[in-house]
Design a protein that fits this description.
Blueprint: H1 12-26, E1 37-39, E2 46-48, E3 52-54, E4 61-63, H2 64-76, H3 94-97, H4 103-116, E5 123-125, E6 134-136, H5 137-147, H6 151-154, E7 156-158, E8 165-167, H7 180-185, H8 190-204, E9 207-208, E10 215-216, E11 224-226, E12 232-234, E13 241-242, E14 245-246, H9 255-258
Antiparallel strand pairs: 1-2, 3-4, 5-6, 7-8, 9-10, 11-12, 13-14
InterPro entries: E3_UB_ligase_RBR, IBR_dom, TRIAD_supradom, Znf_C3HC4_RING-type, Znf_RING, Znf_RING/FYVE/PHD, Znf_RING_CS
Function: Might act as an E3 ubiquitin-protein ligase, or as part of E3 complex, which accepts ubiquitin from specific E2 ubiquitin-conjugating enzymes and then transfers it to substrates.
Protein name: RBR-type E3 ubiquitin transferase
């Protein structure tokens, strides 16, 4: 059993007795567990209690199928999965979800949790296309100062994973003896790749977040997009959503993104 302390967490004793009380209401009194059913709060189907998922700490229960679909939608939007119960803000524990999710989704969930722990303004991603490791600015600086001199003054950083050097100011591989402006003006790195990316984005119908400039692709769902930086916008025109409402008149969805073949 995992123990957590702090605001919003129940004590170990409360957690233990609450769990025991819940199980006493749902566990069968005989060896034939298949006769005991429980209603899922999402699909309202009567489901075998052994196929029900219990959220840690809040104890809201749903069938495996509904939780899996709910978690996948949240992960595809770059959101750390939370309890599906309306108004509940309990985070889902990754250890509890391993039996529900594919290895791909577990990896996405791990990345989402890691990103959520680093404030957006502090995030740095390794520009090495084979790495793209997430770091905080503080973490990258501390690691770089152990590896190279004048890291703080020069802006040079080393990735904590692949150890490739890069510029923290313009987010490209390190350009020694050359300013960021001169480096970009030389067309050595970014211009041709940016043009190729813009061309590919137009071809594939991708959209760019106006706040952080990350490229986003809609795989499934409505046109209300939430970037990993937290910015919400319309996938069709790019206009901002405010207080969960659009500022444009574009359609909210297209059936081809809602209904999977």
């Amino acid at each position: 059993m995992k123990i957590r302390f702090g605001y919003g967490r129940v004590s170990v004793v409360t957690y233990t007795f609450a769990r025991a009380a819940l199980l006493s209401k749902t566990s069968p009194m005989n060896s034939d567990s298949t006769i005991l059913k429980e209603t899922c709060a999402i699909c309202l189907e009567n489901v075998d209690v052994l196929k029900m998922f219990s959220v840690d700490y809040c104890f809201h229960r749903f069938c495996f199928s509904c939780v899996k679909k709910n978690v996948e939608v949240q992960l595809r939007q770059g959101i750390v999965p939370k309890c599906p119960f309306e108004g509940c803000r309990s985070d889902l524990e990754i250890d509890s979800c391993t039996k529900l999710l594919t290895p791909e989704l577990i990896e996405i969930m791990t990345q989402c949790i890691k990103e959520a722990r680093v404030p957006f303004t502090e995030r740095i991603y390794c520009p090495n296309s084979r790495c793209s490791t997430l770091m905080s600015k503080c973490e990258a600086l501390e690691f770089s100062e152990m590896k190279c001199k004048n890291a703080r003054e020069s802006g040079a950083r080393k990735c904590i994973k692949c150890c490739e050097s890069f510029c923290v100011n313009c987010k490209v591989p390190w350009h020694e003896n050359m300013s960021c402006y001169d480096y970009k003006s030389s067309h050595i790195y970014s211009c041709s790749k940016d043009a190729a990316l813009d061309s590919l984005a137009k071809k594939e119908g991708w959209r760019q977040c106006k706040k952080c400039s990350h490229m986003i692709e809609l795989a499934v769902g409505c046109f209300h997009m939430t970037c990993r930086c937290g910015y919400e916008f319309c996938y069709t025109c790019g206009m901002e959503w405010r207080e969960k409402k659009p500022t444009c008149t574009c359609p909210r969805w297209d059936e081809c993104y809602i209904i999977r073949n």
